[in-house]
Amino acid sequence: MPEEVGGPGDNYVFLSSMIHAHADDLFQGMKVKGCYQFRLTRNADLSVDTEDVEDLARALRGELFSRRYGDAVRLEVADTCPKHLSDYLLKQFNLHETELYQVNGPVNLTRLFSITGLDSQRELQYLPFTPQIPKLLQNSENIFSVISKQDILLLHPFESFTPVVDLLRQAAKDPHVLAVRQTLYRSGANSEIVDALVDAARNGKEVTAVIELRARFDEESNLQLASRLQAAGAVVIYGVVGFKTHAKMMLILRREAGEIVRYAHLGTGNYHAANARLYTDYSLLTSDDALCEDVGKLFSQLIGMGKTLRMKKLLHAPFTLKKGMLDMIARETQFALDGKPAHIIAKFNSLTDPKIIRALYKASQSGVRIDLVVRGMCCLRPGIAGVSHNIHVRSIIGRFLEHTRVFYFLNGGEEQMFLSSADWMERNLDKRVETCFPVEGKKLIMRVKKELELYLTDNTHSWSLQADGRYIRNTPTGNQNPRSAQATLLERLGSPILAVR
Known about the structure:
Helix content is about 30%, strand content about 20%. The protein is of the alpha/beta class. The chain has four domains: about 1-35, no CATH class; about 35-125, no CATH class; about 135-310, Endonuclease, Chain A (2-Layer Sandwich); about 315-495, Endonuclease, Chain A (2-Layer Sandwich), CATH 3.30.870. Strands 8, 12, 13, 14, 15, 17, 18, 19, 20 and 21 form a ten-stranded mixed beta sheet that branches. Strands 4, 5, 6, 7, 9, 10, 11 and 16 form an eight-stranded mixed beta sheet that branches. The protein has a three-stranded mixed beta sheet with strand order 1-2-3, with helices on one face. Helix 9 (about 160-175) runs parallel beside helix 10 (about 190-200), helix 10 (about 190-200) packs parallel to helix 11 (about 220-230) and helix 13 (about 320-335) runs parallel beside helix 14. It is globular and about 85 Å long. The two termini are about 30 Å apart.
């Protein structure tokens, strides 16, 4: 582009702008009165009745093509578009005026992401960082020996996802390992996790994969990985009819000194190495007898469709998770009514469940201090006098997508900490297979609590929800220093490179 048009340096032009400028050339012999951008969003759900189909995989393959023809749900148009044209589009797509969004500028800003990755635009990029591996695992050739002595807690992406992959790789090659069981929601057909499962199956291990074919936008990828695993000799299960399997868990059975010992991985995020560099998630590697036994029971239920088995430590949806959360909120409420300190800290993606919200309102009215970190939807209104005046809600939007699900209860001084694959939403608590597992030991509980408190004091990338539904960005006041939870975690757990600008 000539400098007199765009100025010095790199200049970019939207393709839509070029179309606007040359619309007369595209429609020769016609008079162009206007040129306006619009974008249509369609419903991406696939209409497969899992109870009426004999072959879910085949039914999904047939439905994938029809996704592009789903019902329209939203229309975005340039705010310069005349009303009669936007009304015409609404009529054509059978949409209501409330589903029309007028946009001041380009209607698809995602195109700008391609610019941020260019070598010539380094100033738009974050500094690189290297996720770290805990010292306990750095010099250990046998990850089983480390986990057998103590639980290992990882916080991604600040700490590496590699130990989770290494655990599975070692299991695939270890002659003492008898069986591997794993859930897969989003992983990618060519992931290291799937490669390790394939190797394990080919090496004679009993491999069972519970694959959720209906993971939105990953249906095709999951169909491919299911085929790969079946070809290698693994047993592939498509979950429970009517319930998505969203739990993140792995179970390894290993023969040691003539006995079968269980090892488990439980997480808040998917088995997806790329996401593990972009999403914040916890991973727990454990050989705790009771917890691993619970994981084994849940796998047995998923694989055998057997009756619900009583768990010792694990809460699981759709059976005990919601009730367990409500009971713990009620317990804090009673502590407050008895005049004792009561505190709840919870961090998750979304809060929509009516029963949970009502329980939190009651707890607030009883004097429980409640701090919520909710990245996305929040149907609770904090700060309403006499209703939710003890509830504070904030959202953290930074370099990484906040994805951890963490629940802390003061519990009369006997603090409890739980990690989960589930948000406080009806779909997670009532319509999905989910896990919620305890963090045990004072050292690990205090670690997670301190990490939660970083988010509660963030004043650079946090927004506080107001009683009227507005969000107000938090900024340093007075003599406060700027505090970023993600930057602090990178300094503490990640590479020595400060990776946040």
